[in-house]
Design goal:
The chain is α/β, with parallel strands linked by helices. It has two domains: 3-128, Up-down Bundle (AhpD-like), CATH 1.20.1290; 145-394, Alpha/Beta hydrolase fold, catalytic domain (Rossmann fold), CATH 3.40.50. 54% of the residues lie in helices and 10% in strands. It has helices spanning 3-19, 21-29, 36-50, 58-72, 75-87, 96-109, 112-128, 168-174, 200-214, 226-237, 258-272, 275-285, 288-291, 298-310, 314-325, 353-362, 377-380, 382-394, and strands at 145-149, 153-157, 179-183, 219-224, 242-248, 340-345, 367-371. α12 runs antiparallel to α14 (298-310). 40% of the residues are buried.
Length: 397
Amino acid sequence: MTNHDKDYADGMLNRRRVLGNAWVDKSLVNVNDFNGEFQNLITRYAWNEVWGRPAFGDKTRRLMVLSTMIALKAYEEFALHVRAGLDGPPESRLTPDDIKEVIMQAAIYCGVPAANHAFSIAGAILREKGFLPATESKPSPKLHWVREGQGPVVMLSHALGCDLSMWDAVAERLKQRFTVLRYDARGHGQSAAPAGPYSMEMLADDAAALITEQATGPVHFVGLSMGGMTAQALAVRHPQLVKSITIANAANFYGEPAGAMWRARMETVLTQGVAAVVDGAIQRWFTPEFIADTAGGGAVRVATLRQKFETIAPAPYAASCGAVAAIDFRSSNQRVTCPTLVIAGTRDEATPLALSEAIVSSIPGAQLATLPAAHLSAVEQPQDFAELLVAFLDGLK
């Protein structure tokens, strides 16, 4: 390895540590013959020679960069480093107060207009990441919910295209020891269906409002598929409301070609109705043997969930698809601080095991468990699902 190669490798390590893998990977995709030498130069000199100097730690350098970007009015770079600072590792992570103090200092030395614009940019990022309330926050829609049992509160959040009945068999097993609170997400079941678009942040805020109304403290939040994505957003936006999260059969990011698939599904539903996508969903949700299981009740459960799916109106279903398609928790999951269990189905083709492994890698201390099931693992194997969940919760005591 030449000195240049070593400098590049060391610089890349620093760059990934400071900006995060997601951003660096995205920027490397854009490297080409025209800009490649420049990218190599800044990696060797900026990220190795300067960021690698021992005099200041990463946190101090983050603050220095923010000040410099305000002075230069380089607001795109300023936004990049605000995001990277908020999502950074614990030892160099910036707080909203850190960022505020930098901008206040800049107001004196760089000018009030520059600081005013910096506050606007940083404020938007803080709202996006849940550090500040949304500027135009709308009340959460009225959600239909069911509460059973007694004991610590376990809240269940269902998959896209289902309703709270998806959890019937799991709830039956949990309610002997826990208060089980389950609900229909916006646009599903008996809950209100406000006009779209929807976002996963909205779904997390809906859940937070229900927790605040119906629980006396933080809950153990369990979500499957769309519900598991809601769990990831909830744990970062409203950490005070969750004791733990369980994320089943979910993802933390969809790139392409998955994005194109989601857009096509939304178009199909809006032009042909939900019935046009039901058969494909059933094939993804369950294993063939569960669909054909007339003796053990699998076929009946499949028929029931099919019927409920077909009653969802096209517009809210498409809006929910849009919320799922847009998720990107790769960086924000680093800020999840509560105990986390991730459950994957080894026969899940909708969210394969690798997607659950990616979630585990992105959340500090997360545990992974598997079930030999397809996408709706809690429906197909409720006993085993409940046992995994109870063992996890018992281990928190």
